[in-house]
């Protein structure tokens, strides 16, 4: 057969595929491998995808955001709140982004919604306890929380690296759900009690081949040796998490890489350790969802699917691990009270002067199962006075009696940058807002409002545009 490329003709299929990849500045070992594993059409589409950038967001169902403000958007077929955008917003300076009204997330990652909802329809338990094992920065965690019952279900978010854990806490606080607990286990070394989880999502640390389009560091750090190291680490994580799943429980395993060592080989490993494949092949039924993979696994390839590189698979646990005796006694934890704060279907926990909010079901899991700690901070005691955290204003489950002050665009940006706001208002703690979107708290002294925005959440640079419209739909 004769193949053509840019007006040239080739008799050799292998030579033809190599020519398609010749212009790509990627590791040679990676190019050699995909040349063997992918057909020429896939390779061509993958190469062409480097000339295109995908932008996608997921809305928060707890909050009301006018989608038309992004002007040009299209639905992501496998995610109920997911949308492609024609232009990349200046997310950082959008008050709605800072307040958790939406999350910037890669489209392929949102496929966990389809998998979870399909499994949920056939699972018998009414109250779920789930794990997001490698949780930072919080994309999948916030997505899963949007799918759970906030009163009956609880999500355990795990992140062992302190700096990443803080980013996770910040994003969870903005998202507004309180049926969440945190943990910092290294699942390469430790696990949770056996039969304690109804589902687990493992977005495993990987070699990052799926990020080559947008992250030069992923290209620079890639090596065949790193692929092997990641595959070994992934098996260690699976070893410590699989026993925690109940019979019938769901495990979703994903990576942002393409190679079989970190994907198909892990499928075989999971199956050998007491899990059945969970069929998700009907993902292909969605319009424009051109996916490649087995009936319980899909590989999202940029250019083939409008997504960054992503691999996802699903399994249901069939074997029941022997029940281990709990080594932890139930915690003796008392709930706390604040005169000016009420938690809807939840309670407050005070720890070393910091107050945390958690759902009633989350409190039970925290107290009895010892699976994690409350992590949604709402404020702290300083010199016998309560100083509210921005999270208190972000969540519809947290009710307070602080008055609100509306700021214009310029004032809102100054507040987010940590500046004092010159506004006349009644003295005391106030909630600052822009177009009814909560920004955080301040302390009014009558002629000005001193900034109480957490230093770690303040913006470093000034907004590149002077209007919200240009922030969400930047001029081309």
Automatic annotation (TrEMBL):
Q: What Gene3D superfamilies does the record point to?
A: 2.30.130.60, Sun protein, domain 3, Vaccinia Virus protein VP39
The record lists S-adenosyl-L-methionine as bound by: 134-140, 159, 186, 203
What biological-process GO terms show up in the record?
Answer: RNA methylation
Residues at the active site: 256 (nucleophile)
Q: Which UniProt keywords apply?
A: Cytoplasm, Methyltransferase, RNA-binding, S-adenosyl-L-methionine, Transferase
Domain SAM-dependent MTase RsmB/NOP-type residue range list:
29-318
Q: Which InterPro entries did the record assign?
A: Methyltr_RsmF_N, MeTrfase_RsmB-F_NOP2_cat, MeTrfase_RsmB-F_NOP2_dom, Nol1_Nop2_Fmu_2, RCMT, SAM-dependent_MTases_sf
A Gene Ontology molecular function term of the record: RNA binding
Instruction: Report the superkingdom from the record.
Output: Bacteria
Name the protein family: Belongs to the class I-like SAM-binding methyltransferase superfamily. RsmB/NOP family.
Task: Give the matching PANTHER family.
Answer: 28S RRNA (CYTOSINE(4447)-C(5))-METHYLTRANSFERASE-RELATED, NOP2 YEAST -RELATED NOL1/NOP2/FMU SUN DOMAIN-CONTAINING
Specify the protein name. Answer: SAM-dependent MTase RsmB/NOP-type domain-containing protein
